[in-house]
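User:
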Amino acid sequence: MKTKNWQLLSIGFLAGMALAVRSYAGDEKKSVEQRLTEVEDKEQIRNLLARYMHYLDAREMVKYSELFTEDGVVNAAQGKWTGRTEMQNMFKPRKNPDGTERAAGPPRPMIHYVIDSVIQVNGNEARHWAKYFAFFPAEKQGERPTVSGIGGYNDWLVKKDGVWYFKRRDILHENPKIEF
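Assistant: Predicted structure:
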């Protein structure tokens, strides 16, 4: 039985290696250093994406805004925020174009989950697409969380002084068409 397990493990390992080698097909012209930089960039971007969710869910809006360039933009059905100062005030009441007061953002914390991320790096610029689910946690023990929303992200990212930032994030709702 042990031999069979080792055989299956070996087959799985070889299949994984073949897929890894195949994933770099077409990258023959890139040096090992270029490919390593791209892998490191993608990992830094994944970290940026995770911090975005943590800061947004915790309503740490100063840290959230610092994930964007100084002139970064967030586009959503609820509005458009340009620059870090506007983003820090995202959940505060504000004026509608007609001068009436718009209510504050979500009254309680949410939990976001991101799936199906695709990252494409091109030097100091990158694109990211993903889908998300957002939930309101249960307010009382024994209750279930409720769905707040589903949708997707369409992102433009830039690398400045070795650090990745959002340049623009479009928050798409329901069943977004994501092209990559």
